[in-house]
């Protein structure tokens, strides 16, 4: 889709961490405040500054003591600390609240139009969301809203200092059959939606936010920052070239880091407008074809990166710096910190699992040492049963990955450790995958040769189940067949039939015994009634797999899930 056909919005909370704190201490609203981390040194490092404090020249990255000199009445909120680590739950929970309001608002709007999936919502960070409103706006008749409504939402226009008022006039007095005018009206319609959404966020969370309304991610992000705080800015395509004359290359999304600096140095330029003057051929000399094309597009206000449908974070992470003398020199210290970080991460992973019905499949461990720089290791997380394994198991996997052999002293001390759980899968999908695995497993079991199977075989009529309390198992599924088969074969079944236990319990108990029996490989001299030919190569193969599964509590858990009905086949 051509770039100006899309309607893309960025919503970004104003001085987010400060607002989170102010909400908890409401007498601090409207006062100059900052949030600082690690208080024991020069008043702590400032990570968020509200707009009242910015007026005194206070900036992120300053130390608390330094900021106090600029504004003696400054209030410094402290990030809570737990075991030497910043505790950010408060801000993450507040973020989830905001995203819930956004999701609910979208759902409500779609419902009122009797349509689904009109809005694409992408969580961009703890306090930012991109929205693609193209379908929603195009599902409505092209119509100008009331100017007064828009000004109430503190809507600004970025177009050569033109006021929103004057801009509106031209739509009212000219016909709107040209495409450019129509696109501008679509932006204005989107501003109404955004204004109402911002109002909802404020009413439900007390938080103020700003927004940029334009045609792509780069432009909406840029627009959002133009009139902060508590304002929304429309940036039409026609305004881009004049705006770019005052936009530093480093202020553009994705050009803030190394690449932006490189561009400035190579071409000896500063602004986006200057970048637009660098011709494609020259760009191609310095960058590969794809990057050159992308930079050329950006410099002309074009960015075709789609807003992806992602309402949840891509990963859950935590980390800790160990600067200077704090660097970790002993393996036992690393072990302790891995366990401590993992404890925090696991709590969040569990919460995330509950709230979002998803499980992470991969743990990425990052560490930094002077000798090796930044390094990463990936450790798969076994979620076979729709749940996480015990944290201790992951911790020992991590330690094995980090250290091939036990050491007491580490030669190259660790200055930073981080953990991130990622590659999420729906819990339902995880259970389906494991079910498929179990099915496959039981298909193998079905093939086991049982000694004396013939004598013990029961007639297949469902009447046979009449002695059992629960209804007979109807499904032809291999897992249930296998459980039935095992149940039939065991003397336990008759006992249990007599004392009226439920069929699943009977079968599970029987299966349990069967498995125990299975595990006792050493007793190769089984008596004849004891069913399994342990020398059969196929049985031995199954046995190996069975032991692996038992080892990871796989089987006992399946039984448990079968009994309580969480696993259905
Ligand atoms: N944050 C942080 N460390 C950083 C950057 C940000 O801890 N280096 C935290 C604190 C911020 C929050 O993330 O409050 C959101 O970051 P923003 O960059 O969006 O900044 P703010 O929301 O604080 O301010 P603004 O109003 O400019 O968006
Ligand atoms: Ca913000
Ligand atoms: Ca932000």
Structure notes:
- The chain is an alpha+beta fold.
- The protein has four domains: 214 residues, Alpha-Beta Plaits, CATH 3.30.70; 70 residues, MutS, DNA mismatch repair protein, domain I, CATH 3.40.1170.60; 113 residues, DNA polymerase, Y-family, little finger domain (Dna Ligase, domain 1, 2-Layer Sandwich), CATH 3.30.1490; 131 residues, no CATH class.
- It is 46% helix and 17% strand.
- The protein contains 23 helices and 16 strands.
- It has a six-stranded mixed beta sheet with strand order 7-8-1-10-11-9.
- Helix 4 packs across helix 8.
- The longest helix has 27 residues.
- It is globular and about 90 Å long.
- About 13% of the residues have low confidence.
- The structure holds 2'-deoxycytidine-5'-triphosphate (DCP) and calcium ion (2 copies).
- One calcium ion (CA) binds next to loops.
